[in-house]
Amino acid sequence: MDGLNVSIAFFFLVVGACQVLRWLSKRLLSPRTHSCLAREFAGSFQLCMSCLELRMLMEIGPWSGGFGLDVVLTLLFLLSAVHGASFDGASANPTVSLQEFLLLESSLAATAAKLLAQGVGAGTGWALTRLYWSWELTQLHFIQNLIAPECSSSIRASLPHAAFVEGSCSFLFHLVLLKVQQSHPLYRVPALAATVTFLTYTAGPFTGAFFNPALAAATTFHCSGSSFWDYIQVYWLGPLAGEI
């Protein structure tokens, strides 16, 4: 369980660092720059690092860490709730930003800036998480370093099936988001966290259940077993179709 404690401390550190970044950007940058760039970068960075560490626990924990899927799903729900409460209005998801654009809630320039910040945030989160794993603070990280170069694709179904799964996850997530986005955070945050947890539990075995193009690109696009076009179809076109 020592490895789990280190991971929990890592989650706290990432969220705390991103909160400091949001606080500084809100005071040093213009409101437009903060909302379009800094806030989205911090949210995507936080989401990517947390997701990578959590996926590592999900894949290695049951046979090396001594804890099961119930522990990981509980962490997923709690982290999703923390993200929802701390993102300060950021979506950290390109499909959500595109939805705002289609609903005329965001301009083309602002949407493009958000997509850029989300991509950079996810890429930076991936690079720093790999650096953190290289320190091998726990046995789980040691094993992760050994298997990381040989990672396999998260697509474990036929391409049409996988794209349909990601599209369905995106559709259901956006449906809940549209329903609760005007609700009080006390209701909105746990509702979205429960939705993410449910979708990950049900769709995870088929595609990993990302339904977030930036997160998927940073997490699984570099793995072997599927072509780049396969990844585009499943993790970009699938969620985009579901959102539309």
TrEMBL record:
Alphabetical list of SUPFAM superfamilies matching this protein: Aquaporin-like
Transmembrane segments: 6-24
Subcellular location per the Swiss-Prot or TrEMBL entry: Membrane
Gene name, Swiss-Prot/TrEMBL: Aqp12
Keyword Hydrolase: no
Membrane topology: Multi-pass membrane protein
Family to which the UniProt record says this protein belongs: Belongs to the MIP/aquaporin (TC 1.A.8) family. AQP11/AQP12 subfamily.
Entry keyword set: Membrane, Repeat, Transmembrane, Transmembrane helix, Transport
Organism superkingdom: Eukaryota
GO molecular function, one term: channel activity
Keyword check for Transport: yes
Species per Swiss-Prot/TrEMBL record: Oxylabes madagascariensis
GO cellular component terms given for this protein: cytoplasm; membrane
The protein's name in its UniProt record: AQP12 protein
